[in-house]
Amino acid sequence: QVQLVESGGGLVQPGGSLKLSCATSGIIYRPVVMGWYRQAAGKVRDLVARISDGGGTEYGDSVKGRFTISRDNAKNTVDLQMNSLKPEDTAVYYCNIGMYWGKGTPVTVSS
């Protein structure tokens, strides 16, 4: 059974940083793409960032230059370093591999 478990969310002040991590289990292959999405209250789920097994990355326009995605192919984990956080980054952040999703970790950016 494949499981994705996010961690690292929480409350942070504007301008602060957080690092999200996604641990996986039950995956017996190297995922081609691993990603992070987010969903704010009342909005659709949007791409934050994704990374290929070769290290190629793609970021949502609103996070470019502030967020960095990385992965450990040996452990099948994916991290998201979030810097210069803004109130509009407040959302539940989800880890994604193909058809599999984690349950999400909430991030709140507020003073």
Residue runs with pLDDT of under 50 for 5 or more positions: none
Distance between the termini: 40 Å
Number of strands: 11
Total number of helices: 0
Class based on secondary structure composition and strand pairing: mainly beta
Beta-sheet strand percentage? over 45%
What portion of residues is helical? under 10%
Shape: globular
Oligomer: single chain
Radius of gyration, whole Å: 13 Å
Mean pLDDT: 96
How does the major sheet shape up?
Answer: 7 strands, mixed
SSE succession: EEEEEEEEEEE
Protein traits:
111 residues, mainly beta, seven-stranded mixed β-sheet, four-stranded antiparallel β-sheet, 11 strands, 53% strand, globular
Strand and helix map with partners:
Elements (H helix, E strand, L loop, with lengths): L2 E5 L2 E3 L5 E8 L7 E7 L6 E7 L4 E3 L7 E6 L4 E6 L8 E7 L2 E2 L3 E5 L2
Parallel strand pairs: 2-11
Antiparallel strand pairs: 1-3, 3-8, 4-5, 4-9, 5-6, 7-8, 9-10, 9-11
